[in-house]
What does this fold into?
Amino acid sequence: MKQDSSLTTPASGQEESNKSPLDFPSNFIQDIISADLRAGKNQGRVHTRFPPEPNGYLHIGHAKSICLNFGLARANDGLCNLRFDDTNPSKEEVEFVDSIMTDVRWLGFDWEERLYYASDYFEQLYEWALQLIQDGKAYVCDLNAEEIRAYRGTLTDAGQESPYRNRSVEENLDLFKRMRAGEFEEGARVLRAKIDMASPNLNMRDPVLYRILKQAHHRTGDKWLIYPMYDYAHPLSDAIEAITHSICTLEFADHRPLYDWFIDNVKPEYEPRQYEFARLNLSYTVMSKRKLRALVEQGYVNGWDDPRMPTISGLRRRGYTPEAIRDFCERIGVAKRDSTVDIALLEYCIREDLNRRADRVMAVLRPLKIVIENYPEGQVEWLDIANNPENPDSGNRKIPFGRELYIEQEDFMEDPPRKFFRLAPGREVRLKGAYIIKCQELIKDEQTGEIIQLRCTYDPDTKSGGPAAGRKVKGTLHWVAASHAVKAEVRLYDHLFDSDNPDDDEDGKVFTQKINPNSLLVLNGCMLEAGLEKVQPGERFQFLRQGYFVADPDSKTDAPVFNRIVPLRDSWAKIQKKG
Ligand code: ATP
Ligand code: MG
It folds into this structure.
């Protein structure tokens, strides 16, 4: 598989990386639109649509399509519709419709009053089917699904015509109307287009237009007992909405002749055109809705918005911003060939965004208590510390310092190697924004031998502004004052799969067998700096040296819950530099 791991250059296969005057990254679809505009096509209109099927939650792949469709409309002074492709009643639910609208809005796009449903067009689509029958271009076929498949032939062998192909127009009209009236059982009959059973394109071998489904639809209720197929409904829905550029993913390239056949033979007033682009694949991720649904339904994750899911709602709960997702969609570009994007690029985009915006705070995830023996008991000092050195407007805050503090367990070693620049017996470190301390003694649990406390001393002259403020030590640690610490739960997330291509079944394993057993690690008893007890869900911070974190909706007053969005990359080197 091709992996595109470059973080700054556009994905290979992208046609152009120049920005258009409207600051929309140019791509081959924009080029087509520009050429159409120059040629005066569509009276200068650009009208796209985003057509999700409401059978699951949107994922990051959909975000690419949303950014492209709404983005092209915006860049070309055009319009973009939201259209629910709700032609399949059995799998569709109102929950999905609602979540899709929430997610598109959250990503920053607006369909204004142009919210449509393919089901709004059922009557018109039915009328057009009658017209195709009248024109001798569609017929009712009594073969069952299995027989239709067998008659279709293969890539190398022509198909075989259905014995029902040459029914009279009258008989076809009668049967089709009775299909609608519910006279026949599900699967007994279908309506098919009469095209060409010998076509080298299997999609053109008399495709099914309508099937009988005696199921209630979330919008039309029990009104319809026959439902149109996607390939029939989609081009004609585009025609009804006068879509100028109907953009879909590459797997529909083979369906384009059929798209055009319906337009040519139904002859709607407006004739839309289809263009295909490469779908987004991400390493360490499955994107098929069927698989995402299986993860939810079989309990591998805690719902569609589990922060490990590539769904928009999962990414939102994980702490991703719409800006970072849009930036990602811009960076990956629009290609004509499938490839897999390294998930590290997505993580890079959120780091870039939050580096600018997220305030820094101190949080100790695995606390080790230290006692500063020469610091007065009961004394609390409020130290000034910058909220975000990357953002001069973010100001300062006061954090408490006292005799008892927490540091990270991994920042102490009893018997360290030479290059360990953190705390060890007899060694000194700086506590970020505070003093230099020295470890004098360690206290162990008598039973387990576990280190439970460090006894330290501090150098009062080493505070910022103090006489020895400039004294250099090799390491700087984050810390939290025990007296004011806010106890929190912190959820550390990692990739949901431990294979970079979980879809690949060559190793004989299905995707659920490749779930990363360490994709979620819950830490209780983390200690956060004062002030974080009243955090609102959705608030994001950089926990110094740890990464970016967001307050989860499970947070309660005085009991915050944080999700790790992404770790910092070279967190240690960074803090070393900034001291
Ligand atoms: P699935 O096959 O997993 O059910 P889908 O493509 O059928 O997904 P839809 O709801 O029909 O899902 O998709 C709505 C739109 O989003 C379509 O135009 C589709 O091409 C686009 N889309 C879906 N997945 C991706 C992806 N991975 N990358 C880019 N666009 C995508
Ligand atoms: Mg689809």
Notes: The domain at 131-230 is CATH 3.90.800.10 (Glutamyl-tRNA Synthetase; domain 3).
